[in-house]
Design brief:
Number of strands: 5
Distance between the termini: 14 Å
CATH superfamily: P-loop containing nucleotide triphosphate hydrolases
Helix content: 55-70%
Oligomer: single chain
Order of helices and strands: EHEHHHEHEHHHEH
Strand order of the largest sheet: 2-3-1-4-5
Number of domains: 1
């Protein structure tokens, strides 16, 4: 099963993906994790990405698409993936369709977690205090990331609806367990 998980920064995608991946039997593929891996290893890509992430900017599509293509080709992804943070725009959604189509696969389920802007700001500022991540400590940067999500990523939901996919809308307010239950129910439909 190939599942795409959408939601604004701070909505809990990473937390929920970690809970759902085992139930689905597929790996959690997070572009954020891939970028952070490169940052921690100080690779050339990591150096390029560092300034962009700190400013709340997105990594160029060609770099992201190449990383995702490589990840989809790994043996553990042969039966499907749970994508978190990709696609971030309609062009990437079209690329994902081509990448999966070349493997005889398609996006099976689209999940969209919804959380209002002020709540995402509150959550991310708390996460920044706990983790020390610089990009999570500046409210202006967080609001820019939220605006970027609305402008560039949220149109992917319309793309998938127009492609005939059902987009399951999930309320992202509540306990972690409550949100997990809502996601599981959507997956069971």
């Amino acid at each position: 099963m190939n599942v795409v998980l959408f939601g604004p920064p701070g909505c809990g995608k990473g937390t929920q993906a970690a809970r759902l991946k085992d139930a689905l039997g597929v790996p959690h593929v997070s572009t954020g994790d891939m970028f952070r891996d490169h940052l921690s290893r100080k690779t050339e890509l990591g150096k390029q990405v560092e300034a962009l992430l700190a400013a709340g900017k997105l990594v160029p599509d060609d770099v992201t698409n190449s990383m995702v293509e490589e990840r989809l080709g790994r043996p553990d992804a042969a039966e499907g993936v749970l994508l978190d943070g990709y696609p971030r725009n309609v062009a990437q959604a079209e690329t994902l369709d081509r990448l999966l189509g070349a493997r005889g696969r398609a996006v099976d389920v689209v999940l969209a977690i919804h959380v209002e802007e002020d709540e995402t700001v509150r959550r991310i500022l708390k996460r920044g205090q706990d983790s020390g991540r610089a990009d999570d400590l500046d409210e202006g940067t967080i609001r820019d990331r939220f605006a970027t999500y609305l402008e560039q990523t949220e149109p992917c939901l319309a793309f998938y609806r127009e492609s005939g996919k059902t987009v399951h809308e999930i309320d992202g307010i509540g306990t972690i367990d409550e949100i997990t239950q809502r996601l599981r129910e959507a997956l069971g439909r």
